[in-house]
């Protein structure tokens, strides 16, 4: 049984294949033949919009594709790419780049991340997430804006748990600075429960948590927090998301994402024995 394809990867594959099929044909000429604007064709080929199955079939015929199986494959990619997933219902208050990142996240075979100040979202308890978000947004825990952010995070966790318990569980590799474990968030009870949850998550075979100790000194992660996604079915595609207090940035070009894969490899290599979390927690309890 092959790993299923989700909407994000289906869009990438379809847009790439359609651009390949066009070959040397002028885009303007194809757009006229399809009775489209040039902008529409460009947006389809650049994975900015989805394309309806009937349009895919018509475009394939225009390009001379006659194999029914090949046309069926393209139509199936179109159908998958247009599935309405839960994150599309959050568009009113989430940045488009963040929505697209969540879509890629659902298809990723390996989720990486470096976090300098707080525990990464896959490891957070709801109480930790609420306390953290309330502080960052400078609003009470019961404020609607706080709840919206945390609700999306919990939905991401639910989706990830379903995948971890499924037939094709992704791998998760996260690097955090030691300060993350020493910073109390939400009070003693919240932090104690959070540490218990962290230990339970790190015990899963799919999850790797590396703690970067203070004694390590400077390291390449100090350039800033980021998340990186890789895909076993599309090895040429890496996706990076960088979040700031104002907005977020989605990177997909190899020239932009390659440095982050190299940084992640270097950070994970600091824990060859795989015991950095145990050592850090022991040190935190002594402190």
From TrEMBL:
CDD domains with a match to the protein in the record: HTH_XRE
Domain of life of the organism encoding this protein: Bacteria
Signal sequence interval, chain numbering: none
Domain HTH cro/C1-type: residue ranges: 28-71
Protein name: Helix-turn-helix domain-containing protein
